[in-house]
Each structure stands twice: as C-alpha cells, then as structure tokens.
Amino acid sequence: MAFKIYTKTGDGGETGLFGGKRLPKDHLRIEAYGTIDELNSFIGLVKDYAQDETTENLLYSIQNQLFTIGSHLACDPEKPMQLPKIEPKSIEIMEQEIDRLSLNLPTLKNFILPGGHPSNSYCHVARCVCRRAERNVVALSHTEAVEPIIIQYLNRLSDYLFTLSRAFSQWNNAEEIIWVPEK
Asked: Most CB contacts within 10 A, which of 50, 91, 125, 160?
C-alpha cells in the first residue's frame, strides 16, 4: 500500500506535536513553527538566486537549521526528545558572512526600500517572514520554555538576509532604492 499524505486527524482543527499532544491549529506554538516552515520555503527561493557557492552553501545550511528549529518548536515541551542541536557556531558563521559581504557594500546612510531586482525583493520578503517568526517565538517564550538560541538565530538570520539583499543588488547591478519620505 502506498503512503498517504492525508491522515484526516487535523480535520477538526487540531494537530499533533512530536510526543502526541494535540493542540488547536491556531495555537502560538503551531503558528511559530508554521512560520519557520514558511521562512524555509522563502530561503529556498532566495537560494535559487545565489550567484556563488559560498552563498548557496550557507543558505542550504540555514534551511537545515530552520528544519531543526521547527522540530524543536514542534515538540511537546513536557516530553523532551533527542533532537539535533542548534549550535552557536551557526550564528557565528552568519556573522562572519555578514562581515564579509559588508566589506564590498557602500556604507548604509539611508533606509532602503525593497526592490530593484527579484533576488533583492525575495531577500526582503524572507527577512520580513523571519522577523514574524522571531516575534512568534518570543511571544511563545513568554508562556512556554523556548531555547534562547532559537531567538538569537532568527535575529541574526534577519540581519544576514538584509545584508544579502544589498549584496544581490550589487551583484545584479541594481540600484538600491533609497527611502525618500513624501512631503
């Protein structure tokens, strides 16, 4: 018999965590790891625009880390499980890449509007989804235990995505669109 993707167990508006506990699909924990999944999809789209092996490899690593973060958030906090660790080294690697990319970027003197090239725009969409995921995880941490490294990782990832958006603009000879307030 072939594997069926549908289980029908969520038809009543609940879903199961790893460990068996059932929660309503609008629970903050479900929203948090669902947004991580959405972010991972956008990172895949950004990765499709990568123009060098370093960027492509880092984005692939980020996708794997996001899957790990999602698995941590999808676990019943009352039933600890053995899961892959989220290593501080992954944050350090993003910081090093932010620094490397920033060496070749013009000094930031203004706010920048998304746009100018699809790769830049997708980075900004991913950055916004990342910030929403971070807000969801922070909100969840007010009521349930959340590993602090998850929040740190998401915060640094949004910084990386902003820097990568600027690098994509440069690599594609797209002018950065400066925010000019309308009077």
From this structure: 160
